Amino acid sequence: MASSASSSKKTLVLPEVNFSDWGDIRYLHLGTEWVQGSMKLDAPFEIELEYVQRMMAWLLFVDGKGVGNRHAMQLGLGAATLTKFSRKTLRMRTTAIELNPQVVSACRGWFKLPADDLKLRVVIADAAEEIRKSEWHGTVDALQVDLYDHEAAAPVLDSEDFYADCRALLTEDGCMTVNLFGRSSSYERSLEKIAAAFGADAVWAFKPTREGNTVVLAQRTPSRPKREVLAERAQTIQTRWGLPAPKWLRVFKPMTLSLTT
């Protein structure tokens, strides 16, 4: 569920946006065969891809009763899967930042993204620049970062400064989840940058999916909930929102960051 993004003011050539249907699944593409997001045609507000489900792991760190009062932000709209789930299913205030206006139009026309309302706002902007605006600082409880170009080789925004800007968006108990996909060396470098911006004790990570997506979570305020607390919350997440959270706990752990360069 990736998206184009760039901090350059130079002439920007945005990729063509199209979609394909395979069985009961619709896929978003940015002019290549790489999948940038998906939607079940008969269940458009569910999360179909495993790694996208894991981007909701921040729910393990909050009381489920107050989720509807929180603010979710997505950097990179993709097929609007996280945006729709946050707004429609979790009933959260939801903001998505997307560089490519064609992606927004595609999501509204082909992927059931609702129109903006009092709790949903889609901002067409460069994510790197938009998140530096003071209006967003300290307001985001769940930040979900999925920023890839049409080749999906490595994250487009992936510097220590960028992750520090992401941390500044978060409330005290807020979390960032990031999709890291690409060569293993790219993953290690990304993890080091996240740890440098958030602190090594704030970082958790899933094992990679079969497709090679690794979701990393970083907390504004590090915590280590007891296993029984996580298990109880995971069961609540599955019961209330249909996400396979109990399975997450088998492949999701705090990082002991002894990274190699």
TrEMBL record:
The top of its lineage is: Bacteria, Pseudomonadati, Pseudomonadota, Betaproteobacteria, Burkholderiales
Q: Which SUPFAM superfamilies match?
A: S-adenosyl-L-methionine-dependent methyltransferases
Q: What is this protein called?
A: Spermidine synthase
Q: Name one GO biological process term.
A: polyamine biosynthetic process
Q: What keywords does the record list, in alphabetical order?
A: Polyamine biosynthesis
Q: Which domain of life is it from?
A: Bacteria
